[in-house]
UniProtKB/TrEMBL annotation:
It catalyses: D-ribulose 5-phosphate = D-xylulose 5-phosphate. Pathway: Carbohydrate degradation. GO terms for biological process: pentose catabolic process; pentose-phosphate shunt. CDD domains: RPE (cd00429). The gene is rpe. Its cofactor is Zn(2+); a divalent metal cation; Mn(2+); Co(2+). GO terms for molecular function: D-ribulose-phosphate 3-epimerase activity; metal ion binding. One of its GO terms (cellular component) is cytoplasm. This is Ribulose-phosphate 3-epimerase. It comes from Promethearchaeum syntrophicum. InterPro entries: Aldolase_TIM (IPR013785), Ribul_P_3_epim (IPR026019), Ribul_P_3_epim-like (IPR000056), RibuloseP-bd_barrel (IPR011060). It comes from the Archaea. Pfam families: Ribul_P_3_epim (PF00834). PROSITE patterns: RIBUL_P_3_EPIMER_1, RIBUL_P_3_EPIMER_2.
């Protein structure tokens, strides 16, 4: 299982150093939470910040767009070095167009769903995408409590993929409230990539925190 620290909980005044520290601490991916103050009430950063971070690390950039109508800024995120772009099913009417653009660019495409969106809603998209991100908190803030009932979605996604390996190759990612107490349950449900923000960045030893999630 891969560990993708979310920089939402990092010290933004020292972002470059924070990223080097999690890279040296064994992070597999870097999870970048982009929020627009519209799709979610919070605001974070956009393409200019990601552009500055790109030369600073060789980590895989897992960009999670919590923004309305992501199609408007898609090319900017592709241009600044995103490796994978995850958009929200609830944020756009142009999912098929977005999938097409990202695939043509040679980058990976992910779809995310909020806790109240049933997993069946995106079943028709699963054969076209590289990753599905199951939100285990309401998107918008770090440090919230994990919603264990979201693991039912993970179990369904794993069963669908296991039963149809010719058509489904998506990775299953989970985001929100992950820590050393729920990681085993998360792993058993079938998650491939785990996002963790406050559990890692609120500790003094990032390496120990990341390896506790790897085990
Ligand atoms: O997408 C997010 C919030 O919208 C964050 O990535 C997520 O909540 C991670 O933070 P934490 O591990 O502290 O819950």
């Amino acid at each position: 299982m891969k560990v993708a620290p979310s920089i939402l909980s990092a010290d933004f005044s020292r972002l470059g150093e924070e990223i080097n520290a999690i890279e040296n601490g064994g992070a597999d991916w870097l999870h970048l939470d982009v929020m627009d103050g519209n799709f979610v009430p919070n605001l974070t950063f956009g393409p200019p910040v990601i552009k500055c971070l790109r030369p600073n690390t060789s980590l895989f950039f897992d960009v999670h767009l919590m923004i309305s109508t992501p199609e408007t800024l898609l090319q900017d995120f592709l241009d600044v070095g995103a490796d994978l772009i995850t958009i929200h099913y609830e944020a756009t009417q142009k999912i098929d167009e977005i999938i097409e653009i990202i695939k043509k660019s040679g980058k990976k495409i992910g779809i995310s769903i909020k806790p109240n969106t049933p997993i069946g809603t995106i079943k028709n998209l699963l054969d076209k995408i590289d990753l599905i991100l199951v939100m285990s908190v309401e998107p918008g803030w770090g440090g919230q409590k994990f919603m264990p009932e979201m693991l039912e979605k993970v179990k369904k996604l794993k069963a669908w993929r296991d039963n149809n390996p010719e058509n489904y190759h998506y990775l299953i990612e989970i985001d929100g409230g992950i820590n050393n107490e729920n990681i085993l349950e998360v792993k058993k449900a079938g998650v491939d990539v785990v996002v963790a923000g406050s559990y890692i960045f609120k500790r003094s030893n990032y390496k120990a925190a990341i390896s506790s999630l790897h085990q």
